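Annotators were shown the component list below and the corresponding predicted structure, then asked to write short factual statements about the assembly.
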Amino acid sequence: MDFVILSLVMMGIGIYGLLTNRQLLKVFISIELIAIAATLNFVMLVSSAGQGLGQAFLILAFSTDTAVSGVVLALLVIVTKKYGTSNINDILTMHEKRESEAEEYGDA
Amino acid sequence: MILEILSIGLIVSACLALFLDEVVYSVAALSGTFLFTALLYYVNGAIYAAIFQFVVGVGTLAILFLSGEMLSDKSRKKTSPKKLSALIGVGLVLSLPAIFLSISSSKGVYSNASFGGALWHLSGVDVILQALVILTVALGIAIILYEQKKGGK
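Structure shown to annotators:
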């Protein structure tokens, strides 16, 4: 049983999901999985070394991760409310259309 | 034995969280991922980390359930049983390397080492992981440039 390989597999799953999923919430779940992989690797290293300081660092990492999750989720809700969809391709298309329309009106 | 069961559950629930069609079921599978991670920490003796993982996981999941209900399309198709069993099978296969392979040279090397010494012993793995991160970033930039070029045509 090797936890470095386990966290590598978890990170691989997260990166694959990040590259292939087009739904914003799935992208967020992929980022969460990558964060879990990183903290898993760190916790297993710390518990092998028997250092209590590592767990203190880890609690800091958890706090940062949670704060980032809150900000990202707020952004997701704003973007979905603004464009009416949570698909990245549709959002990009709508954004480009709005920009071109704004340029046309700016020229005129 | 319990570590192997927990790692299989972790990988399978991660696969389900990413590739199920219904967002609410994905969030439910992600709750399994958080739970298995906290149990892994607890079994390995990192009790504070397990408690924090559990608390943070519960908070994140509550918000994710709410936003998942709000953001998901109601008319989406459901996951077929064939796809579900395929996802579980892929998760089982992906958990095999973690159970049967090992990249550690000898067990118990870090038990009496200082934190700096343990990091020094893991420097080779660290270089490989950094290379992986740089490779991933380069791949991401290449995909973004390709998409921009494709969109420009």
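Statements collected:
1. Chain A has a mean pLDDT of 83.
2. DSSP finds four helices and no strands in chain A.
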